[in-house]
Specification:
Length: 107
C-alpha cells in the first residue's frame, strides 16, 4: 500500500498524506496482538484508498488542493530574513542559518 501511495520523503509529504501514513502505522501496530488480521487489513486498504482518492482530487481540484495543502512560507525575501514569518510558524532562526550554510558549502 505504501508503494501505491507514492515515493516521497517524509519532509515532502503533504499534511493529509502524513496523517494517513501515521494512521496506517497505528492501525498496523494495534494489530500485532490481535489474532484476526482481516479487519486491520481492511482498515489499511480503506485508508490507502482514501489517500489515493484525496490525492487524485487534489490534482484535479484547485480548491480542494488549497484546503488540504499547506502553502509554503517565505522566510527570506530580497536577501532579508523575515523573522516575523519565522516566528509565526515557530521555526528557529538557527535552523535557517544552518540550512543556508549547508547550501553555501555544497555549491
Amino acid at each position: 500500500m505504501t508503494l501505491l501511495m507514492g515515493k516521497r520523503q517524509v519532509g515532502e509529504l503533504p499534511v493529509f498524506d502524513f496523517i494517513i501514513a501515521v494512521t496506517i502505522g497505528a492501525v498496523a501496530g494495534a494489530d500485532i496482538a490481535d489474532i484476526d488480521h482481516g479487519p486491520t487489513a481492511l482498515a489499511n486498504v480503506l485508508l490507502a484508498l482514501l489517500q489515493l482518492t484525496v490525492s487524485y482530487g487534489i490534482t484535479k481540484n484547485r480548491i480542494l488542493n488549497h484546503l488540504l495543502s499547506l502553502e509554503p512560507t517565505i522566510v527570506i525575501q530580497n536577501g532579508q530574513l523575515l523573522r516575523s514569518h519565522l516566528k509565526r510558524i515557530s521555526y528557529p532562526v538557527d535552523t535557517v542559518l544552518e540550512l543556508l550554510w549547508e547550501k553555501a558549502c555544497s555549491t
